[in-house]
Write the structure tokens for this entry.
Amino acid sequence: MTASSAPLIRPVSARDDLEQLTRLIHSAYAPHAAQGLRYWGTHQSVQDTAKRFASGTGLVMLEGNEYVGTITLRPPQPESPVALYRDCGVWTFCQFCISPDAKGRGYGAQLHAHATALAQRAGAKVMGLDTAQPAAALIAMYESWGYRIVGECDWRPLTNYTSVVMSRPLE
């Protein structure tokens, strides 16, 4: 694949290698683990990866035959402990990452834009997310994409930090 070729973004399928995708997630979240943040993505099992994909629409990003990113887009979650996520117009995403080897190419923004366009076509009015409160660089990236902090949530003991909840309108 040439540097000018756009990566392919498609829904995850039964033919995808969940072990390889889990390794991608672990490698992408490793810098957070090195900072002491226990994101689910730092240690999730292959079964967890499958379960998280099944919680919504899992997308994979490929450069040639190599996975370079993933995201899971979730519809409204009526049972969520996060009030925002229960709203019928709010879609969220999780399990979002780009391979460390593919960073700096704009792939994260491309994958995010693809996912938010899917959500908007499905009726989403707002996109939401949560991330670790200490993850200043991630929060700044999301703010540059139009997200604003609208609350907090706490996933402990699954994580070891308080999260910020962020949202942005889709227009």
The mean pLDDT is 93. DSSP finds five helices and seven strands in the chain. The helical segments are 18-34, 46-54, 83-86, 107-121, 136-144.
